[in-house]
Amino acid sequence: MGPFAALRRPDPRWAATLAVVWLLTAVPIAVTLFLTGSRTIVLAGHDTDLEPTLDGYATVDLGPYLPSFRIASGSRLGAALDLGPTDLRSYEALVERYALLASQPEGQIAKVRATLVDMALDSAVVGALLGLAAPGLVLLVGRRRWSELAHPWSRRRTGATAVCALVVVAAVGTGTLVEDSDEPSVREQSWQPLAEALPDVDLPSRAAGLEVESGLMTSGTRRLVESALATYRKSLTFYQDLTAAAPALASQLRAPQEGEVVALLVSDRHDNIGMDPVARAVADAGGATFLLDAGDDTSTGGSWEAFSLDSLNSAFDDYDDRYAVAGNHDNGDFVTEYLAGLGFTTLVGDVVDGPDGIRLLGASDVRSSGLGSWRDQSGEVTFDEQRTLLADAACAQDAKDERISTLLVHDAASGSEALERGCVDLVLAGHLHEQVGPSPVVAADGTVGYSYTNGTTGGAAYAVALGSKLRRDAEVTLVTYREGRPVGLQPVMVRTTGEFRVGPWTPLEVTVAPQ
């Protein structure tokens, strides 16, 4: 009989033995791989090394000049986060960013959690595959030979030998993937509650469980931490109050009627993550069920601004339909590629079927280099050329009686030709940081469409919005659709003083000339 003869005569007990051998080998390998692994992610604007731990804390290492912080994770599993380079050059600006992120941490927490889950799944798969070596060895030797080897031994000795063999297999399997290091992954640290380190500071309740590395609280770092706490408190209070007040707007907002759906339009967030829960609360009050993002979510389009996109994703993570284009400040491809990775539909010049029969067309601002399917053309596509390309695409659909209901762009000028040629119902945009429209546009054939520019959702002055309060009035807009066509919209403004101002619902009387 060959070494695999047992496979031809199935024996439940033998199969169970092989399964136990595999399990006892695979689990230690998977656990070891997980606990000794690491991932590099962008967190809080830093390239960050993330390592799983079993100390039950999320520990953030801010580098050699700032103390580390940690907070209980609520379970045995924890994470060590070693923050690397970022773009800011002053500790004051850096600490302010930390404070603002701490006031809206949901996006960053979700990112860490998702990374840990992904690491665990990868480790489990590799452990399962390497674990097959143990039952494979058993099968290779053969059941009969194992019986011969085990017969003269005592049961206790046989069991001990089996355990040793499993340990050796697990160690060999793990050693093929894990690089040994003489240095400990986390240096020895002593901790004290932040309340004890700053006894004269009135800490917010959400910071009650925060601990700081003891011995590194110099007078300089103390001032930075106190400044961060002040910024944190202002940001938390300002945006939390707005979020709490938003549900009361329902009485001022037009409720969608039977057969209607509502989209929330945002634009020009410019990293102001504080407005994301406010925007979501307004969307809920107005009955919105999908998101339209007209671009400029960031200030530079850099990968360090991933926290802004993570925050938007966290605020609308339960929406099935989320559509986005990049603005002129979203330089490069990072923003559109990152949003696509988060599950957003990024519009690149192709027609997309939206919810309830809505047909969407859109493209990123050509000035951001996010040119989508038009990149393949020789030379650079100019703004005017893009405007014509969008109009041609919309009119081609209209000629097939598959009319585009909404053209989503960053700058409304990109959609002007499509409106003038009567090929689209509504152009939605941002860019100007001021509301413009809705303005009717009558084409030569009598078709009436509309152009609308949303203000800055982030309350941005130029390209900067990140701060404990708004730099200028912020705005989102509720867009109502019926049978796939836009029928009205209603802007909601947030004043810099922390008050809402709800605009009237404006009907859109779109008319299409007969073919």
TrEMBL record:
Protein name (database record): Metallophosphoesterase
Keywords: Membrane, Transmembrane, Transmembrane helix
Annotated source species: Nocardioides mesophilus
Pfam families with a match to the protein in the record: Metallophos
Calcineurin-like phosphoesterase domain residues: 264-434
Domain of life according to the entry: Bacteria
Transport is among the record's keywords: no
Spans through the membrane: 12-35, 120-140
Record GO terms (molecular function): hydrolase activity
InterPro entries: Calcineurin-like_PHP (IPR004843), Metallo-depent_PP-like (IPR029052)
SUPFAM superfamilies: Metallo-dependent phosphatases
